[in-house]
Specification:
Layout lengths: L1 E5 L5 H9 L3 E5 L5 H7 L5 E4 L7 H6 L5 E4 L9 H6 L3 E4 L5 H17 L1 H9 L17 E5 L3 H12 L3 E5 L11 E2 L2 H7 L2 E4 L13 H6 L4 E5 L8 H10 L2 E6 L18 E3 L8 H20 L1
Parallel strand pairs: 1-2, 1-3, 3-4, 4-5, 6-7, 6-9, 7-8, 9-10, 10-11, 11-12
Helix pairs in contact: 1-11, 5-7
């Protein structure tokens, strides 16, 4: 009998199917910090997390029976993958499950920034009628620069094309797609884009990719959208760019530290801030949940 620890909430229907599988014993225990997880993990053969729970080196070292770690989501930055690989523990995720959820969320943030939705909503809730204050612009015929052309980046590109936008993409590999996009260098993307959307993992090569130097190359009045990972954007540099007017507006769903402790960027009037909810659509979470079930069936008990 394989023992599986579910560390974060998952879709109820997927959880019920998981419990019905023969050959595994399911334990649901959420909200654990590292110390509690270190105490809990011994004896379990697999652990399932979303974004809240961190599978760190001490957790992996304590999990002497671990065979499989599953992230119900895209990124693996909350799992110490290198340490898991050293211990011979397989690591899996569900990269396609929430693609549509995040792409639609990103596009919603794009619309919100150009039309001042967040600020206008706050104004109305303060019982004001500031109609002239919130004049915006269209997305139509604007240039969108997408950094990172994986599943989500291309899904955003598809939606942008439908809105009549011109789309540039930057990636380290050649982009293979029938979509009417143009792959360019990073510097050209900075220079040409009216709006820049980030779709990157966080690692040493992407840390603070969007920096003071990067902002200096961008158009005046550029709009920044980050629904990928905190730390890809230097938050202090973004705040300086907003204060100088280099950046017209920003929509930020992810932060260098989550939950944030410094709210200076979030408090800026030209920032729309979200609590990392890009993948938090019921349909996407259901797909992710059933993908976790499939992974456990194939890799743990088959």
């Amino acid at each position: 009998m394989k023992k599986v620890l579910i560390c974060d909430p998952m879709d109820p229907d997927a959880f019920e199917e998981l419990k019905s599988l023969s050959g595994i014993e399911i334990t649901l225990k959420t909200g654990m910090d590292e110390a509690e997880l270190v105490k809990t993990i011994p004896g379990f053969h697999a652990a399932v997390v979303r974004s809240a729970t961190k599978i760190t080196k001490p957790v992996i070292e304590a999990g002497m029976d671990l065979e499989l770690l599953v992230r119900a989501g895209i990124g693996l930055d909350n799992i110490d993958v290198k340490e898991a690989e050293k211990k011979g523990i397989r690591v899996a995720n569900t990269p396609s499950a929430t693609t549509i959820s995040v792409a639609e969320h990103t596009f919603g943030l794009m619309l919100a920034t150009v039309r001042n939705h967040g600020q206008a909503n706050i104004s109305m809730k303060e019982h004001k009628w500031e109609k002239k204050k919130f004049k915006g612009t269209e997305l139509y015929e604007k240039t969108l620069g997408i950094i990172g052309s994986g599943r989500i980046g291309l899904a955003v590109a598809e939606r942008a094309i439908a809105f009549g936008m011109k789309v540039f993409v930057y990636d380290l590999i050649e982009v293979q797609t029938p979509l009417a996009i143009k792959q360019v260098s990073l510097d050209e993307l900075f220079v040409q884009s009216d709006m820049i959307s980030l779709h990157l993992p966080f690692n040493e090569s992407t840390k603070h990719m969007i920096s003071d130097e990067a902002f200096s190359k961008m158009k005046d009045g550029v709009i920044i959208i980050n629904a990928s990972r905190g730390g890809v954007v230097d938050e202090a540099a973004l705040l300086r760019a907003l204060e100088s007017g280099k950046v017209r507006a920003a929509a930020v769903d992810v932060f260098e530290k989550e939950p944030p402790v410094d709210f200076s960027l979030i408090d800026h009037p030209k920032v729309i801030a979200m609590p990392h909810i890009g993948a938090a659509a019921s349909e996407g979470q259901k797909r992710a949940g059933f993908e976790v079930v499939r992974i456990l069936k194939e890799r743990l008990i088959s």
